[in-house]
Every structure is written in structure tokens, then in C-alpha cells.
Design a protein that fits this description.
The structure holds 2 protein chains of 2 kinds.
Chain A (H helix, E strand, L loop, with lengths): L1 H12 L8 H41 L4 H7 L7 H4 L2 H14 L6 H32 L1 H16 L2 H11 L4 H25 L3 H9 L4 H37 L6 H10 L3 H29 L13
Chain B lengths: L4 E11 L5 E12 L4 E5 L6 H9 L6 E6 L2 E2 L7 E4 L11 H11 L4 H14 L15 H13 L5 E5 L7 H16 L4 E6 L2 H7 L2 E5 L6 E6 L8 H4 L3 H29 L1
Parallel strand pairs in B: 3-8, 3-9, 6-7, 7-8
Antiparallel strand pairs in B: 1-2, 1-4, 4-5, 9-10
Helix pairs in contact in B: 2-3, 2-4, 3-4, 6-8
The chains are: A mainly alpha, B alpha/beta.
């Protein structure tokens, strides 16, 4: 409806002589406007979803209230604030941490500590994952020999491995990086391996005919081709790195967001637990945006990658 | 002088996934003179593509001898260009990088490779498209990239596997004419695989007819049409029709055999 009326408007507005040239320009302008309108709509709906969720949460922690209700269920509201907290309390906790610092020290130090562990684990895990994935993908014998070990290792709950690292590597950053790296490794490894296996045979044949040696083949054909698989795995694996870092902190740490959550839990401070979770979510979203930007840079050759599939 | 390409009693077998043996070629004999433009026609599944894979060295022969320039083929043959049936240009490289790939792999400096690539891009009519990625090009343009990518290495032997089969008729005629021009300017021997007899005759000096699989050469025909040719017009010449009828009477039986087999296989 609105598109059609806009078209009619522009036709009546333009002089007859210009009409032949106008439509194309109009089309482009209209398309741009539609895209922009859609972006605004998506942002608006996103905001709305957030407001509704937080609003329902907040309201159901406060209402119904009154002596009769409280006498009956033991607390004000549909849900118990003591166990489930409420958004305003969580915001308050975050603000207090931000303004006065946490019991472990300034807030930014905790965020930075967890970020360091996460990024460290992410980098170590992805580099190892890509290296082994490409190596095993390229070498049939190696992959046949090692595959039962890798599948077996993959079946071990890796969160448990964090306990081992806490003992063997100590309570500082090393054990967290190791835990995060182990979580990241397998996801990236399997994707890189599969990506290498899926490389178009024709492209390999073409490169060999054109004179590529094995090293050039790996660097210029195999890796770029597997890159879309690898990058897809990086999206999930950053989240896993964060999980690894936080779990590592739960096994014993002196700082970090995970440790913050752990100490909030020990004082039954549910608002503090949720505040820590909110921080983690914010970190994950930020990282996701960075990885998407990286993806768009690295995979320019693919039509409309990420922009269409991004959620 | 030794033939540019010589296949003697070549047999090629493949293992099928169900651990059976599939014979693609049997006792194939074929010789291509230096500078000759040869077409290979045959029904689908007769091993035409396999023949090219053997000549290029991508696949070893199971039996028999494959020689290029009088030397037995043991691996990828130096001086061979290969234009694949499907798109084989590298999607993550721009047109310029795609065309420059061959010289780069062969050790040319980046600048030298780029310069030569620009020349070839212009020669196949893609000047101004240097920085495009393959997905931004039409099918015909991608074929030009593939052609430039092969020809930049100055191949003595150019193998083409139904390179234009995916193109519309107009684009195809255009590309065929350009191929003839580029071929005429260099001393290259061409083996052009196609299922299209018209295309085969209008391009080549000699046409090999391959039997329904396992493929072997049934007959070969010399095409004595004058050059330079215009592929869009040459098919109206009486001599063209005569050759066409002659080859077709030979090819038809093979096509029928292959068709019957497919029908039976499907039933």
C-alpha cells in the first residue's frame, strides 16, 4: 500500500519530460527507503521484545502484592524475588558494581580478566583447531589413525577437564585459557576438517593444472574454501570460550565475572548472579559483532554472506 | 615429428563405491598432431572427460601408454591447459587474481603476473572487470576468465571439457569464434570434448567419434573446411552438411546404444 502510494506521488510530482529517466532512480530510492524502514522496524521490535520480557519479569516479581497474597504464598508477586530477583534489582547491582566496585575489586578488572581468558582460549583453541583440522583433512592416513582418539576425547565432558587444569595449571589465567581452548578446539577442529573435505574437486584439479604445489594448494585453495566453515564455527565457539573461562573461574579464581557470580551465589545474592550473567551476555554480543565484521571482511567474495543470515 | 598427444591401447578402470570395477575406456587409440584442433564426440558417459584427465596427468591410465610430446605422462603435464566443464575459477579470487594464479604458481613475480593477467583479461574482452569476484559475473564471463586463466600459461596443449555447454547459443557462438581466434594466434594443440556434433565440426580439424562406454575410438574424420571460420555461418556450407551427415550416421548408433542402456538402467 505505502509503496504504491509513494510511486503515485512521485509520478505526479515529476515533469512529463523527465518521466522516462525517473523510474529507475525512483526504484533505487524506494528500495533504499524500504531497507532503511525495515532496519528501523527490526530495531524497534528488538527493543519491544526486551521491554516486554523485562517488564513481565519485573511486574510478576511485584504483583500481586498485599498482606493477603503474602500470607498465602509467603512473598509478594507471582514469583519470589529472593530466588528470581527482578530487573530493577539487577540493574541496581550492576550500577553499584560499576560505581563502587565489586567485592573483588573494580568492575572493569573483572570484565577484563574474563575477557582475557576468553579471548586467549578462543585464539589458542581456534589456531589449534584449524591447524589440526586442515592437517587431518589433507592427510587421509593421519585422519584414519587419529579419528577414534579424537572422537573419544570429544565425548569427555570438557567442563570436567577444567577441574584438572585448575589443579595442574594453578588458579591463575592459564587454567582458564586451557579450559576455554579445549571447548573451542573441538568445534573449530570438526568444522575445519569437514570444510577441507568438502573442497570442490574441480577447484583442486584446476589449481594443480595451473601449477600449484602442495603448499600453494593448501594456502590458496583449501583454506579459503574451508574458511566459510571455519568462520561459521567461530560464531559458536566464542560463546564456548566464554563458557570455558567462566567454568574455569568457578573451579577456583581470584577475579573475573565467573568468580563474581560464584561469590554472589554464596551470599544468596540472586541479583548479583543475574548481573554477572548480563555482563557475560553483553560480552558475547560484542564479540559476535566483531566476528561478523571479520567474516564480512574475509569472505567478501561470497554474495551477501552474514548480512542475510545474521540474527 | 612426434604427435603432440598419443594414446596407445589405453584402458581406464575405476573402483566403484560398491567395490566393483567400472571400465570407462577400453583400448583407446588416439593421436593429435601439433597445432591441430581436435574434437571428441560421443554419447554421455562414454569416457570423454576421462580421456582428458588421462592426457593432463590428473588420472593415471590403468593400461596402455599416454604420451605428450613423445614423453610418457607420469603426473600433471607441464604445458597443459584445462578448461573444465563446471565452473572451476576460484570464487574467493578476483578476476585479476584468478587469471594471475597460473603465473604466480609458476614463480612469476606478483607485478609481472598482474601485468600479464591484465593483458589476457583484455584479450578475452573483460577489461574493466579486474576487481570483480566470480559471483558478480555472468556464466559467459566466468568462462572467459577460465579461458584466460588457462591461456596465460601459454599451454602447448589445451584440453577443453564441454566448456560452453552451459551457455546460451549466442554467447556460445561468440565464445567459439573467440576461441578460434586465440587458438589461431598460438601454436596450441586442442582437444575439445563435446556432445554437440555441430560445435565439434565447426571448430575442429579432426573429429573423433567415441563409442558408448567403455569408450574407444570408433572412427576419426578430417574436417577440411577453410579457415578462418565463423562458427555461426559455417554450418550453412554444403560441405559442412556432408561431413555432418557422414559423422552423424556413425555417432547415431552409439547414441542409441547408450540411450537404450540408460533406459534399461532406469527401468
Amino acid at each position: 500500500m505505502s509503496v504504491r502510494s509513494a510511486a503515485r506521488l512521485s509520478v505526479t510530482a515529476s515533469a512529463p519530460a523527465e518521466q522516462a529517466a525517473r523510474p529507475a532512480v525512483d526504484m533505487v530510492a524506494r528500495r533504499r527507503r524500504d531497507v532503511r524502514r525495515r532496519q528501523v522496524m527490526v530495531q524497534g521490535l528488538r527493543l519491544l521484545v526486551g521491554v516486554v520480557i523485562l517488564g513481565v519479569w519485573e511486574l510478576s516479581a511485584r504483583f500481586p502484592s498485599g498482606a493477603a497474597w503474602e500470607a498465602q504464598v509467603g512473598h509478594a508477586g507471582l514469583i519470589d524475588k529472593f530466588f528470581w530477583s527482578e530487573p530493577s534489582d539487577i540493574a541496581q547491582s550492576l550500577w553499584t558494581w560499576f560505581r563502587d566496585g565489586t567485592e573483588l575489586g573494580p568492575l572493569w578488572q573483572q570484565v577484563l580478566a574474563t575477557m582475557e581468558e576468553t579471548v586467549g582460549g578462543f585464539i589458542v583453541g581456534s589456531v589449534l583447531g584449524v591447524t589440526f583440522g586442515v592437517a587431518l583433512g589433507r592427510n587421509r592416513l593421519l585422519s584414519d589413525v587419529l579419528s577414534p582418539y579424537i572422537k573419544g576425547a570429544n565425548a569427555i565432558p570438557r567442563v570436567v577437564v577444567g577441574a584438572l587444569f585448575a589443579i595442574s595449571l594453578g588458579l591463575d589465567i592459564k587454567s582458564k585459557i586451557a579450559t576455554a581452548a579445549v571447548l573451542v578446539f573441538f568445534v573449530v577442529f570438526f568444522n575445519a576438517f569437514q570444510g577441507v573435505r568438502e573442497v570442490d574437486r574441480n577447484l583442486i584439479a584446476n589449481a594443480r593444472i595451473l601449477g600449484a604445489n602442495n603448499r600453494q594448494l593448501t594456502r590458496e585453495i583449501i583454506i579459503p574454501s574451508a574458511l566459510s566453515w571455519i568462520i561459521a564455527s567461530l560464531h559458536t565457539s566464542f560463546g564456548l570460550a566464554l563458557v570455558g573461562a567462566v567454568v574455569g573461574e568457578l573451579w577456583g579464581a581470584t577475579q573475573g565475572v565467573g568468580e563474581l557470580i560464584y561469590s554472589a551465589k554464596n551470599t544468596f545474592d540472586t541479583a548479583g548472579v543475574f548481573a554477572g550473567m548480563a555482563l557475560l551476555a553483553a560480552m558475547a554480543l560484542l564479540a559476535e559483532a566483531l566476528i561478523t565484521a571479520l567474516e564480512n571482511r574475509l569472505i567478501r567474495w561470497r554474495p551477501n554472506v552474514a548480512t542475510e543470515t545474521r540474527i | 615429428m612426434a604427435p603432440a598427444i598419443q594414446l596407445r591401447n589405453v584402458t581406464k578402470r575405476f573402483l566403484t563405491p560398491s567395490s566393483g570395477v567400472y571400465t570407462a575406456l577400453r583400448d583407446l587409440n588416439l593421436a593429435v598432431e601439433p597445432g591441430e584442433f581436435c574434437a571428441v564426440v560421443g554419447p554421455t558417459g562414454c569416457g570423454k572427460s576421462t580421456t582428458l584427465a588421462l592426457i593432463s596427468g590428473l588420472e593415471p591410465a590403468s593400461e596402455g601408454e599416454v604420451e605428450v610430446d613423445g614423453k610418457p605422462v607420469t603426473g600433471i603435464v607441464d604445458g597443459v591447459g584445462y578448461v573444465f566443464q563446471t565452473d572451476a575459477v576460484f570464487p574467493w579470487k578476483t578476476v585479476l587474481e584468478n587469471v594471475a594464479a597460473g603465473p604466480r604458481y609458476r614463480g612469476a613475480s606478483a607485478r609481472d603476473a598482474r601485468e600479464r593477467a591484465r593483458e589476457w583479461i583484455a584479450r578475452v574482452g573483460l577489461a574493466g572487470f579486474d576487481d570483480r569476484y566470480p559471483y558478480q559475473l555472468s556464466g559467459g564471463m566466468r568462462k572467459r576468465v577460465a579461458l584466460a586463466q588457462s591461456l596465460i600459461n601459454g599451454p602447448r596443449i589445451l584440453l577443453m571439457d564441454e566448456p560452453f555447454s552451459a551457455l546460451d547459443v549466442q554467447t556460445r557462438n561468440l565464445m567459439e569464434n573467440e576461441l578460434l581466434t586465440l587458438w589461431g594466434a598460438s601454436p596450441t594443440s586442442v582437444v575439445f570434448v563435446t556432445h554437440d556434433l555441430e560445435e565439434a565440426i565447426s571448430l575442429s580439424d579432426r573429429v573423433f567419434v567415441i563409442t558408448a562406454g567403455p569408450g574407444t575410438v570408433k572412427s576419426s574424420y578430417k574436417v577440411d573446411l577453410p579457415r578462418p571460420r565463423n562458427v555461426a555461418e559455417i554450418r550453412f556450407q554444403p560441405e559442412f552438411s556432408r561431413i555432418y551427415e557422414e559423422i552423424w550416421s556413425d555417432l547415431r548408433d552409439e547414441v542409441l546404444v547408450s540411450y537404450e542402456r540408460q533406459k534399461r538402467g532406469a527401468a
